[in-house]
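Below: protein 1.
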Amino acid sequence: MAGAADTAQEKLDRRFMAAALRLSRRHSGRTSTNPSVGTIIVRDDGAGPMIVGTGVTAIGGRPHAETEALAEAGELTHGATAYVTLEPCAHHGRTPPCAEALVTAGIARVVGAASDPDPRVSGKGYAILREAGVEVTERVLASEAANQLAGYLMRSLKKRPEVILKMALSSDGKIGVRGEGQVPITGEVARREVHLMRTEADAILIGIGTALEDDPELTVRLPGLENRSPARIVLDSEMRLPPASRLVSGVDRVPLYIASNPLVDGQRRALLERHGVRFIGTEVHEGKIALPELLEDLAALGMSSIIVEGGASVAQSFLDEGLVDRIVLFRGPTEVGGQGIAAPIGPDTIPAGFRKLREMQFDQDGFAEWVRTI
C-alpha cells in the first residue's frame, strides 16, 4: 500500500509542478538578471489538495515568486506544500532569503524542480529548509524546468547567454533570395509562433547584411503582447546601419544595440547615438565581431537568452564557434529555387551533441527544435 501511496503522491507532485512551470513562463524575458520562477502553494484539509497561493517572479526580478505566493496564501501557508520551479534562494539581500521565508510561513513541505547553480544558493536553500524540519523533495520535472531556465543556467555556469538559432527554410533548404529583401517562407501561424518566441527572449540578434537587405523591425506584433518586444542587436563592425532604418526609428519603443568596432568613425556613432542607439564596443577578429567576447558582454548586461535570426553568414559563424545551444527550424512547403540562399543548417545536418526536443506542425509548416545539454 505504501508503494501505491508514493506513486499517487509522485503523480500529484508532477501535476502541480507542471502547473508551476506553466505559471513561470508568464514573465519569461522580463525579470532582468533573475530567472522567471513559478511557485504554487497547495494544502489539503481533508477534502483534497487545493491551490491557495500562486506567484511568479515579478517584472524586473523582484519580488521573487515564493514571496508573491506566500503573500497570496496568507495564513493558509501553515502546514502547506510549496512547489517551486527553482531551488529557493539562500542569500541575504535587502530582504530575507526565500528559503527562510518559507520556513517562517510554516510551510511543511517544499517540492523543487531545477537546482540553482549560483554558488550563493546551490544546495544551501534546501539545507536551510531541512535544518528547519521542512520536508524537501528535489528534482521533480527537473529536466523540463532546466529547459525553461536554460538561459539563466547558461549565464550562471558559462557566463554567457543561451544562444537560440532560429531559421525558416523552404522545402528545398533555402532561407531567402539575395537582393529581394524579406521573402515569406512560412505562413501566418508559424510567424505568430516566432513572435511568441520573441516574447520570452532578452534579445534578437542579426548581422548588418540582414539589416540592410531586409530593413526589419524585429519587434513582437501579436495583439496585446507588443510591449514584450526584446532588445535588438545588430552586428555592425563598420557601423553601416542607416539612421533612417526601421530598427533605428523604433528605439523609442524597443532598445537597439549595435555591436561595433570602437575605433570606427566617431561621427557615425554620434549620429546614431542622437537617435537613441546604444553601443557595445567589441573586439574584431579578421574583420568580424569576436562572438565569444560579445556574449560575455551581453551576459554582463543581464541578458540570458539571445535569438539569432539572421542571416546565413552570422548563423554559420555561431555554429562554427560552437556557440549555439538551441536550434529552431521552421520548414515551409514551397521551393525557392536555384536563386535562393542556401541555409547553413537543416534537419539532416544538426551538429553532434544536440537532441531533438520536439516536433510540431503549424498549418502547412513544419517545426522542429533541438537542444544541447548545458
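Below: protein 2.
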Amino acid sequence: MSQVEGENIVTLSCIAPVVFGFEHSLKLFIDNKPLYCFKLANALQSFVKRRLHPYLERIDVIAAAAMDPRFKLAWIPCEELQKEKISKMWT
C-alpha cells in the first residue's frame, strides 16, 4: 500500500518543488558570478526554462504538490504567486 500512496517513491507531487528549488539554486549560483562552470549554469538554466517550465503550468502538477503533506505550499516562493497558483487550480 505504501507504493500506491507514494511514501517511499517519487510521485507527481515532487515535480514542482524540485523544479522551483533547482531553478532557485541555479539563480543564486549565477548571481554570485562564479569563476568556473558559468556556461554550464547558464545552459542548465535555459534547459529548465525550456523543458521543465511547461510542467509548472499543468494544473495536476500544482494540485498534487499543494495537496502533498510533505510540501503543501512551502515550495512557492512568495505569497502573491501562491494565490495565483491556487486560483489556477480552482478555475
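Residues 2-90 form one domain.
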